C-alpha cells in the first residue's frame, strides 16, 4: 500500500500541475514566531529543546488525526497519507522551470534564460568558476533531492509524520539559514542528519541511472560519515553520472543538451527507486 500511495501522489503531482499553490508552510514560520514571543525569555528555548517544542506542536495536529483515523477505517488512513505526501512533495514544479529554461536557450532568448537561471540557481552551492549551466545542474540535483527523494525516504520510514517532519525542518532551514542562534543551529544539524541517508541512496540511484564509475567519486566524500557534505556528495555524483564535459563531441548537440541529460538522469533515478520499492513490496519487505 505504501508504494501505491507514493505512485498516486507522484502521478497527481505530475498530471494535475499547479499544486504548489496549496503547499503553503507560512503557518509553521508563524508558529515559530508565536512560540518565540512566549518562550524566548526561557534559557531552554534557544537550543535543541526549543526546536523540539516547535516541531512537536507543528506535528501534533497530524498525530491526533492519524490516531483518530486508525480507529475509523484503513481507507481514511490511506487518504490522509496521500494528502500529506502530496502536500510535502515540493514547493514548486522543478520540471516546468527546467523546460522553460530549455525553451529560452533553444530560442536564443538571452534575457529569459538569464532570469530563469537566476530562479533555478542556489548560490550557496556554487564554486568560483562555475558556468550558468553547471550552476543549474548542481542546484537541480540538490533541489530534486529535497523536492522528492528525501520526502519519499522519510515517508517510507515514518509514514506521513516523517514526510511532514522533513518538510518542516527543510522550510525552517530555508527561512533561518542566515540567522545564527542555538535553535537555528540545531535545526541545521537536524536537516543534515535527515538528509544523510536519502542523499546517499540518491547517489546510488544516480550511479545506476548514469555512469557508475564516474559517479562513485562523489560517494567517497561520505567516507568520514560527515553530515555536512550531503549537497557536495549529490552534486559530485550527479555530475559524474552525467559524464558532464563541455568538450564532449556529441553529434547535433543542442544548446540545452546537458540540461536535457540532467532531466533524464533524475527521472531514471526516480524510476530505479520506484522499481526497487516495487521489488521490496512483492517480496513482503515493504508494506
Describe this structure in words.
With about 290 residues, the chain is mainly alpha-helical. The chain has one domain. Helix content is about 75%, strand content about 0%. It is built from twelve helices and no strands. Helix 7 packs antiparallel against helix 8 and helix 8 packs across helix 9. The longest helix is centred in the C-terminal third of the chain and has 28 residues. It starts with a helix and ends with a helix.
Write the layout of secondary structure elements.
Layout (H helix, E strand, L loop, with lengths): L1 H15 L9 H14 L8 H22 L4 H16 L4 H13 L3 H11 L11 H27 L1 H16 L6 H28 L2 H8 L10 H13 L14 H27 L4
Helix pairs in contact: 1-4, 3-8, 3-9, 4-8, 5-6, 7-8, 7-9, 7-11, 7-12, 8-9, 9-10, 9-11, 9-12, 10-11
Structural class: mainly alpha
Indicate the mean pLDDT: 85
Most strands sheet: none
What portion of residues is helical? over 70%
Distance between the terminal alpha carbons, to the nearest Å? 6 Å
Shape: globular
Computed over alpha carbons, the radius of gyration is 20 Å
Order of helices and strands: HHHHHHHHHHHH
Task: Estimate what percentage of residues fall within beta strands.
Answer: under 5%
Q: How many distinct folded domains?
A: 1
Low-pLDDT sequence parts: none
**Extended strand count:** 0
Continuous helix count: 12
